[in-house]
Design a protein that fits this description.
The complex is a heterodimer of chains A (167) and B (103). Chain A is an alpha/beta fold. In chain A, strand 1, helix 1 and strand 2 form a beta-alpha-beta unit. The mean pLDDT of chain A is 95. Chain A has a domain of 112 residues: Hypothetical Protein Ychn, Chain: A (3-Layer(aba) Sandwich), CATH 3.40.1260.10. A two-stranded antiparallel sheet of chain B has the order 1-2. Chain B has one domain. The chains are: A alpha/beta (167), B mainly alpha (103). Chains A and B meet through helix 1 and helix 4 of A and helix 3 and helix 4 of B.
Chain lengths: 167, 103
């Protein structure tokens, strides 16, 4: 007989390996949403995703204005790739995007990280990527709990109601 | 729509246990819903609950960030008051609809 018992998710482990504005925010929204649902949450930032937890870069993330077919002008017309390549355009577009997100009450990255840890979520940085980019713990947001290896990350992913999400 | 008697009042509630009509709410109902969740309400809880009810009556979408900036309690404190459901449980106890916000 089929069992109708619900088996709610107990833990999520989210990996962020990209440093675009939208990739980091996808991670943060999913992580914060999980924490708010009472789901145990671990977030692992690696490779370019480290920009999302590096003090110097985290509140100034960019979205790509070239090679991004979904990019539109205000009003909905396609955004010409040539225009996207001009100096300053990516910065301006990204600034506009962050402003629009702010209007929807989406917090800046540093505050978002605080919200996640305030609810008991845990943020980690990848050791290999930290070594590769020559970063140190003090370069990272104070919300980052630890720099860990991939093996340690998998140890955190135990439990049969755990999901790993790669954004 | 299921009807449930809480604190001696017949209430219309959603499948998930949220009050359908926030005007039917009173503090006794709040206490009973809270005890079902496993929360004992303190005056601080009621400050948050009343804030949520005011904002809902004013048709403002609720986020935990807003509550954190309300001056009543910070986000960490909100999680202490309503563990594992800072917005979900507080809304249920406040007799307002299930939150639709993602933040």
């Amino acid at each position: 007989m089929e069992s109708k018992e619900k088996k709610p998710l107990e833990k999520v482990c989210i990996i962020c390996a990209k440093g675009n504005l939208e990739d980091v925010y996808a991670t943060l929204v999913m992580a914060n949403g999980a924490v708010m649902e009472g789901i145990e949450t671990n977030v692992f930032f690696t490779f370019f995703g480290l920009d999302g937890i590096t003090k110097k870069t985290m509140n100034n993330l960019h979205t790509a204005t070239t090679g991004n077919p979904a990019m539109r002008m205000p009003g909905g017309l396609p955004f010409p790739t040539m225009l996207g390549g001009l100096p300053g355009v990516e910065s301006a577009v990204s600034g506009m995007m962050r402003k629009q997100m702010g209007e929807l009450d989406m917090p800046p990255v540093d505050e978002f990280l605080e919200m996640i840890t305030a609810g008991g979520g845990t943020i980690y940085a990848c050791k290999l990527a930290i070594d590769m980019f020559k970063l140190k713990k003090e370069d990272l947001s104070s919300e980052v709990k630890d720099i860990i290896t991939i093996g340690q990350f998998y140890e955190l992913c135990d439990g049969d109601r755990t999901q790993i999400i790669f954004t | 729509m299921p009807i449930k008697t809480i604190a001696g009042v017949d209430l219309n509630i959603s499948e998930e246990g949220y009050l359908e009509d926030m005007t039917q709410w009173n503090e006794e109902i709040a206490k009973e819903i809270a005890s079902e969740i496993g929360i004992e309400l303190t005056p601080k809880h009621f400050e948050v609950i009343n804030y949520l009810r005011e904002k809902t009556a004013a048709k403002e979408a609720l986020t935990i960030r807003q509550v954190g900036k309300s001056g009543i309690v910070d986000i960490k404190g909100l999680y202490v008051l309503f563990p594992k459901g800072p917005l979900k449980f507080s809304s249920k106890i406040a007799g307002i609809p299930k939150p639709t916000s993602c933040i």
